[in-house]
Amino acid sequence: MAYVINDSCIACGACAPECPTEAISEGDPIYIIDPDKCIDCGACADVCPTDSPNPE
What is the mean pLDDT of the chain? Predict the structure, then answer.
């Protein structure tokens, strides 16, 4: 099950470098996670200051 980023995202960019599969990219206006690349590791959720990434 892939993670998704909810509307509480402040687009700080903390999550993207933590993703081991480079599934996170800058969207407009919030970051997005490619569900085909996401391996459900939770690394993004561990560093997010607003708890925006959540399991789908």
Answer: 97
Question: In Å, how far are 26, 54 from 3, measured between CA atoms?
Answer: 15, 5
Strand spans (E) along 1-56: 3-5, 24-25, 32-33, 53-55
pTM across the whole model: 0.93
- CATH number of the domain to which 50 belongs: 3.30.70.20
Q: Which residue has the tokens 């599969």?
A: 21
| Torsion angle of C-alpha atoms 14, 25, 40, 6, degrees rounded to 10 | 80
Host domain of residue 9 = 1-56
- What total number of domains does the chain contain? 1
Question: What is the predicted pLDDT for the residue at 1?
Answer: 87
